[in-house]
């Protein structure tokens, strides 16, 4: 559970259930990423009903940032019989295995521990540096399951021929790395299960100790998944990426589309530059039947079916799963970075290198992986630098509130043209895009019908990049609907009401989008476009006596503040609408150019009929009472009919502008008041007959 800083209670209250009495519970404070704006605590609540009740209560507590179960984390493999080196292109012309040195770039294994004394792991070129048991710090981090040792062997076991007692060959074990440094981070117990909080703590150690002179954590292998944990892991994974540290994550073995049913930490591969999600490929470079998949959340595949490697004691085992695929990617990254370390390339260049040298299988893998290919370590290690480190996009991020995205990758500043392709239609070259130097990403406004086509990026020297194909994406994983506004006024549902947003005196050639989203559990209005300089008008309708009390805006992502007349904001005299003159939208935009985005938080309330701000001045004058039923009926007509149309709202505007003076003028004219009342009586009777 994450509390706002300095707002953590000493104890929390557990409600009584049929089997448990009420009690108070103190939490255990956990470490958090340096960038986290919360204090993280773990509370052990055994009773399920108490746990559910507590989570429901705390999610409504203003002091709480988020509440998540300390999810059980399970490794992604299953034991069962070998030969992945030929598939990795690691066999030379004389059928000898090929290995590469990796010891300058240690690999952390976050798993069940490692059997350091295994004969195939106990060799001069392999050292075990950092060792820690996160389940019980007073206990050794040695493997008591076998899963972590299997992963260690796939990375750095010395070539070993294994035979049974009769001398028959059982299998050949070998790691990709001829030399390596491995960190042992035991977070999974002997039954191969563990908790998200321990994974988070291990990752924090990798983050913090990487800055110390005695340790280096450039690559972290996580052959495990959790179905929840986004909020817990987001901070530390983001910080690891920012500092150039890779996290190689198993996609999982549920045979499911994880674009719509995320698995963590793999799900962060489409957000963070250095989280790589790995699927499991069989010997034919097709996706294994058990492997998870997803165009948006699984980068690539690696061999992972029936891999032979080290186990407990002096034993060996054959295992299948994305757990086995993941260390092959980690080892390849270590070998690549060691080979080219003198070039001082950014870390993302190596993610691009993996993608640029995949063994492609378009027919079998298209739509299942972001790049339809399988890890090819041999090609990666022997390709020219020009082929390895050519431009590549690695992931993308939807821009909330607009049909647009950030496309992130390596050397994308060299892109010269972006073309939109659709089957049996003429291709269109896009104009609304630019390169954001700070984000190292392309900002691209998507064309109409973008869901039915693909983007092709072209550079001057390297030609076409791998296309970004929207037709391969799962509908449930696409961004929420937005309203593309091509007229002056657009309507959108907001909370229980309707909002008509009108753009006056704006750039008529620029389209804009209107949408809503949640910010701190409150629904806000979002206006997105390229040029948002205009006079914006907001009309709220959907209930009698609805009033706009305040309008707040997020100023350039620095937080919400109420708009005032100094900001160019005003509210109509009747209180149901407001207008905002935005001359310098860049001062308020939460996005960087070329896009602009205004985020607004209206304060809309229902007022009683006694509110002076909503008086029907002339009707009140002739009936002599603001609570008169005829006056209430006229208000209903105003709210339910006039306020639902632009001409009607204009008429109401005019009425509230001039009616106070007219009502005052009529005060000493009883005959005129009688005539007006006679007319209003008949209109009210007609309205009541019509509505009842």
Helices, strands, pairings?
Layout: E1 2-3, E2 12-14, E3 23-25, E4 28-30, E5 39-42, H1 48-59, E6 64-66, E7 72-75, E8 78-79, E9 100-101, E10 107-111, E11 126-133, H2 147-156, E12 160-163, E13 169-173, E14 177-186, E15 194-195, H3 196-209, E16 219-222, E17 224-225, H4 230-242, E18 246-250, E19 275-281, E20 300-303, E21 307-310, E22 316-320, H5 322-339, H6 348-356, E23 359-360, H7 362-365, E24 373-374, H8 377-382, H9 385-388, E25 392-398, E26 404-410, E27 415-421, E28 428-429, E29 433-436, E30 441-445, E31 454-459, E32 463-464, E33 468-469, E34 483-485, E35 489-494, E36 497-504, E37 512-519, E38 522-529, E39 534-541, E40 546-554, E41 560-562, E42 569-571, E43 577-582, E44 596-606, H10 617-623, H11 629-640, H12 646-666, H13 670-691
Parallel strand pairs: 9-14, 10-14, 10-16, 11-14, 16-18, 18-19, 19-20
Antiparallel strand pairs: 1-5, 1-6, 2-3, 4-5, 7-15, 7-17, 8-22, 12-13, 21-22, 23-24, 25-26, 26-30, 27-28, 27-31, 29-30, 31-32, 31-33, 34-37, 35-36, 36-39, 37-38, 38-44, 39-43, 40-41, 40-44, 42-43
């Amino acid at each position: 559970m994450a509390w706002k800083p300095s707002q953590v209670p000493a104890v929390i209250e557990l409600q009584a259930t049929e089997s448990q009495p009420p009690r108070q519970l103190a939490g255990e404070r956990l470490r958090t990423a340096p960038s986290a704006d919360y204090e993280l605590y773990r509370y052990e609540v055994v009773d399920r009903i108490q746990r559910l009740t507590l989570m429901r209560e705390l999610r409504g507590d203003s002091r709480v940032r988020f509440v998540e179960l300390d999810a059980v984390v399970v490794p992604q493999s299953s034991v069962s019989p070998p030969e992945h080196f030929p598939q990795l292109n690691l066999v030379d012309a004389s059928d000898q295995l090929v290995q590469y040195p990796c010891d300058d770039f240690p690999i952390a294994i976050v798993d069940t521990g490692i059997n350091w004394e295994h004969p195939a792991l106990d060799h001069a070129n392999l050292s075990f540096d950092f060792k820690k048991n996160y389940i019980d710090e007073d206990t050794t981090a040695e493997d008591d399951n076998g899963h972590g040792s299997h992963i260690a062997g796939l990375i750095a076991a010395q070539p070993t021929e294994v035979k049974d007692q009769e001398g028959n060959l059982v299998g050949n074990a070998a790691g990709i790395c001829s030399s390596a440094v491995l960190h042992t981070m035991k977070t999974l117990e002997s039954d191969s299960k563990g908790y998200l909080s321990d994974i988070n703590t291990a990752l924090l150690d990798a983050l913090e100790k990487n800055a110390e002179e005695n340790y280096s954590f450039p690559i972290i292998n996580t052959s495990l998944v959790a179905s929840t944990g986004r909020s817990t892991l987001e901070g530390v994974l983001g910080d690891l990426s920012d500092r150039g540290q890779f996290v190689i994550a198993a996609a999982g073995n549920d045979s499911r589309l994880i674009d719509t049913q995320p698995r963590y930490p793999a799900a962060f591969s489409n957000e963070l530059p250095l989280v790589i999600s790995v699927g499991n490929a069989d010997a034919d470079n097709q996706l294994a039947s058990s492997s998870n998949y997803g165009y948006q959340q699984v980068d690539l595949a690696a061999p992972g079916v029936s891999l032979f490697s080290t186990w407990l004691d002096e034993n060996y085992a054959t295992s299948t799963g994305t757990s086995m695929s993941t260390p092959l990617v980690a080892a390849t990254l270590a070998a690549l970075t060691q080979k080219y370390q003198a070039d001082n390339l950014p870390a993302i260049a190596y993610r691009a290198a993996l993608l640029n040298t995949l063994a492609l299988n378009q027919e079998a893998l298209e739509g299942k992986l972001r790049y339809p290919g399988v890890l090819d370590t041999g090609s990666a290690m022997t390709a020219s630098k020009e082929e390895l480190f050519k431009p590549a996009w690695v992931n993308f991020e939807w821009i909330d509130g607009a049909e647009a995205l950030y496309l992130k990758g390596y050397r994308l500043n060299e892109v010269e043209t972006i073309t939109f392709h659709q089957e049996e239609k003429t291709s269109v070259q896009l104009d609304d895009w630019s390169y954001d130097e700070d984000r190292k990403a392309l900002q691209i406004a998507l064309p109409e019908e973008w869901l039915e086509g693909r983007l092709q990026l072209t550079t001057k020297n390297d030609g076409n990049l791998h296309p970004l194909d929207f037709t391969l994406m799962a509908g449930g994983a696409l961004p929420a609907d937005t309203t593309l506004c091509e007229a002056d006024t657009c309507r959108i549902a907001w909370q229980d009401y309707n909002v008509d947003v009108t753009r006056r005196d704006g750039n008529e050639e620029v389209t804009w989008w209107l949408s809503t989203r949640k910010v701190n559990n409150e629904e806000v209005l979002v206006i997105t476009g390229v040029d948002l300089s205009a006079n914006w008008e907001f009309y709220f309708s959907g209930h009698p006596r609805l009033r706009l009390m305040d309008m707040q805006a997020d100023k350039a992502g620095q937080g919400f503040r109420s708009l005032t007349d100094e900001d160019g904001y005003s509210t109509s005299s009747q209180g149901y609408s407001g207008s905002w003159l935005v001359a310098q939208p860049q001062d308020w935009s939460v996005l960087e150019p070329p896009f602009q985005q205004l985020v607004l938080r209206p304060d809309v309330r229902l007022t009683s009929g006694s509110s002076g701000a909503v008086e029907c001045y002339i009707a009140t004058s002739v009936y002599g009472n603001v609570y008169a039923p005829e006056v209430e009926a006229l208000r209903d007509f105003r709210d339910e009919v006039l306020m639902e149309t632009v001409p009607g709202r204009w008429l109401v505007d005019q009425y509230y502008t001039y009616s106070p003076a007219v009502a005052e003028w009529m005060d000493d004219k009883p005959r005129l008041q009688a005539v007006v009342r006679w007319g209003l009586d008949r209109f009210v009777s007609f309205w009541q007959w019509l509505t009842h």
